[in-house]
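Example S7 (structure tokens).
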């Protein structure tokens, strides 16, 4: 498909109205690495947006240019069913994308026909189809997921133009923070996703929930000696390939650590942690022996 067609679609979905800009949109390109210890393996990107102009407004359309993207989840040149949590006019939703040199171009939004509802993708406690930010920054909770895809060794970047609904009318929106956030250990930083001054995806946090706890320990014990990725308890990357002693040490050494401060009363004494872990190991040993 020619680039001009997508730009024409953008003009329909992200139409520049004569009314002055009365709204603002925040956008984030979230990078979920397949293996945070090996950023070169790439992973999935997610484009999320939210309005910061209050519940009376909502995102009506976007045009995004994403570089370094190797694919977009969807049907090339075809419409997809609108998600009611993102776009109001689900029957007229526009969603188009095309591969371009070094990336992808995405246009999405409500066709400007029928009744234009409001309050979509406004962040905070308002409508959005991502209740909790995947990179653990509560300011991005309840964002609206626009599109997703994959990327490789090249770290994606993106630019964005957007419109909003303001009391039922579409107006050109001011684009505020446009950030790229990732969970790679390469920088030991969730970038703009840090919480309460604490940064970084924790080494040993297999399920990426911000805390090293029992599920992470179970992943290492259950998969010990096997070939798994990060989510299976292998935190040392492809150079090692198996869940081993260093992964066990990462969980033991960081057990109870969290990206957000935990009250002292909620943190067990080190001796209690060790006893619990030793009991778990013993139980695993008994089960294996019986099997």
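Recovered sequence:
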């Amino acid at each position: 498909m020619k680039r001009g067609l997508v730009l024409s679609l953008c003009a329909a979905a992200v139409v520049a109205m004569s009314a002055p800009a009365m709204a603002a949109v925040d956008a984030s390109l979230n990078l979920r690495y397949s293996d945070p210890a090996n950023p070169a393996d790439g992973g999935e990107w997610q484009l999320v947006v939210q309005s910061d102009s209050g519940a009376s407004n909502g995102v009506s359309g976007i045009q995004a240019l994403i570089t370094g993207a190797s694919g977009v989840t969807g049907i090339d040149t075809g419409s997809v069913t609108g998600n009611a949590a993102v776009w109001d006019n689900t029957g007229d939703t526009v969603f188009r994308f095309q591969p371009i040199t070094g990336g992808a171009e995405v246009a999405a939004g409500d066709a400007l026909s029928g009744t234009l509802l409001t309050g979509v993708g406004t962040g905070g406690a308002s409508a959005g189809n991502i209740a909790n930010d995947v990179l653990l920054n509560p300011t991005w909770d309840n964002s609206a997921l626009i599109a997703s895809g994959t990327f490789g060794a090249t770290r994606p970047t993106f630019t964005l133009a957007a419109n909003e609904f303001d009391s039922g009318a579409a107006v050109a929106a001011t684009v505020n923070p446009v950030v790229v956030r990732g969970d790679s250990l390469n920088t030991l930083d969730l970038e703009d996703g840090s919480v309460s001054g604490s940064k970084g995806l924790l080494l040993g946090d297999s399920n990426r929930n911000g805390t090293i706890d029992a599920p992470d320990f179970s992943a290492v014990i259950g998969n010990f000696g096997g070939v798994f990725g990060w989510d299976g308890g292998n935190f040392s990357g492809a150079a090692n390939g198996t869940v081993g002693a260093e992964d066990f040490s990462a969980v033991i050494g960081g057990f109870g650590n969290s990206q957000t401060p935990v009250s002292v009363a909620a943190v067990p004494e080190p001796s209690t942690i060790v006893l619990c872990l030793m009991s778990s190991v013993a139980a695993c040993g008994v089960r294996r022996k019986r099997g």
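Notes on this example. The chain has a mean pLDDT of 65.
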